[in-house]
Amino acid sequence: MILPKFRKINVRSYKPGKSKLSKIKKIVKLSANESALGVSPKVKKEINNKINFSKYPDNKSENLRLAISKNFKCKFEKIICGAGSDEIIQIICQLFLKPRDEVILPQYSFLMYRIYSKINGANVVYAKENNYKISVSEIIKKVSQKTKIVFLANPNNPTGTYLKKNELIQLRKKLRSNILLVVDDAYNEYQQRLFDQLDYEANDLRNRELDYQNNIANLERDMSRELQNRETNLLNYKNQREIEREDIKSRFMFDMQNEEMQRDQNVSMVRQQVDMNLQQEYFNLEREEMNWDLRRQQIQLDYENQLRDYQNQIEQVKFQADVDKERLSMDKAQYEAEMMQLQNEIQSRGTDAERFYEDSLLDFSIEADNRLEELESRRIDENWSDERYQQEIADYDKWYSDRTYEIQSDYDSRIREIEFDQRQYENLQTVVETNEIYQEGERGFFGNPIPGTVRQGGFTDDLSDPGNLAMLGIVITVGTTLLQLARGK
Questions:
Q1: Are 81 and 126 in contact (CB under 8 A)?
Q2: What is the pLDDT of residues 279-311, one digit of tens each?
Q3: Lowest-pLDDT range, 271-285, 298-312, 423-437?
Q4: Cβ neighbours of residue 140 closer than 8 Å, sequence gap 6 or more
Q5: Domain boundaries, the chain
Q6: What is the mean pLDDT of residues 61-89?
Q7: Which helix (DSSP H) or strand (DSSP E) does residue 334 occupy?
Q8: What three-state secondary structure class fits 472?
Q9: What CA–CA distance (Å, rounded) separates 456 from 434?
Q10: Among 450, 465, 484, residue whose Cα is nearest residue 301
């Protein structure tokens, strides 16, 4: 069984109520905020009479929050309850901190501040204290662009010192507005009693002697505490160095994990890109095969069209030969009139063919643009995949090629017919200009005389008959088509 990896967090565990007073049996631990009197009998009675332990309690603590809001005259929505202040500290860190943020703590402070800060990946920064009292100026010095939270307890645990109201206000004003200032008032009751005691002693002249004795005792206590503080500072420095070492180690491990994640992501992206390229190449190969098939079909159609054209030409040649026989009996003026009419017809047909070809190309260009725009619009509206888009593009290319070939084939067929008539016209023109009269025999292919009869146009025609010349044209056409097919493969 493979277990998931977990993130190791190097922090010292918190030991509630830790004490080194081993020789004293009964200890009241003020640092743990424990009651020296135990549970009130009224509380016990209230618990036994009104609390149902068989049901879950109200997880939102609405009744408790309502009572707190009435007693302290504050808004119900601004009160949250937790399982001790630890849970509240944990919630704050989870909500406001992310890795590499900074949290500022007093030099001596509640351990849970740093523990939950490090659990959420934040860096803990410590501000020095002046004579075990939190220093506002030292906290301000530690503020950076990464600072997100400032934690402090007032009165402080474990030093027992406190900040006055104006000092807290001063600290809040000097901090940026986006820095959360968290004030832990867990020991506020001791602070209020201390204020009352100081006011009482300041107004009572009978305690002057007691003040003198207290000053002497405080001096001796301060001397003893100074020695203990030096030892404590040395131990704290050692512990702080250990914490910093563990923190550096933790950051290094975190960076290594990030590098491994980045490496895995890069490998995954490269693999995806390779797969996409392979898929694109497959599409291109299929598209080329379709184009080759289309080209072979076009060549076959071209061959069939040319064959039909030559057959038509043979029939036209035969027909024209018969017409030429009849024209031999006409005079030169009649020939010239017919030649003029034939030339005009040929020019008109050529102009019509060019105009029809240009109009067809223009209409085809407009239709192609409209189809391409419609294809792109459907791709966006219907959210086509890349495979669907490539297939649609292939269909569009096939239609484009077929339509282009259709227009060009029609135009070439018209031009071939016009060129054929033009050659016939030139043959008749030669007859008219030379005014040749055949002595014997009949006219042959293209208006030429039968071999061995007479001369025409300044050269002797050695062609035999229309059938042989037509067969020669068919052989040339078939050879050209086969050569194109061989090159296409």
A1: no
A2: 888 888 888 888 888 888 888 888 888 888 878
A3: 423-437
A4: 171, 174, 175
A5: 47-81, 84-266, 289-488
A6: 89
A7: helix 332-381
A8: helix
A9: 8
A10: 484
Whether the CB-CB separation of 93 and 120 falls below 8 Å is answered with yes
- Percent of the chain exceeding pLDDT 90 equals 18
Report the length, in residues, of the chain.
489
Question: At which residue do the structure tokens 């906290």 appear?
Answer: 139
Residue 443 pLDDT level (bands cut at 50, 70, 90):
very low
Q: Is 317 exposed, middle or buried (0-12, 13-18, 19+ CB in 10 A)?
A: buried
Domain 84-266 matching CATH 3.40.640: the answer reads yes
Question: What is the tens place of the pLDDT at every residue in 121-144?
Answer: 999 999 999 999 999 999 999 999
Judged by DSSP in three states, 437 sits in coil
Alpha carbon 277 to chain centroid distance?
A: 18
- CA nearest to 124, candidates 135, 132, 134, 109: 109
Amino acid in the structure at residue 376: E
316 C-beta neighbours (distance < 10 Å), count? 15
Q: What sign results for the dihedral spanned by CA atoms 137, 141, 146, 151?
A: negative
Residue 117, burial from CB neighbour count under 10 angstroms (0-12, 13-18, 19+): buried
Residue partners of 18: CB distance under 8 A and separation at least 6: none
Contact 11, 114 (CB under 8 A): yes
Beta bridge mates, 127? 106
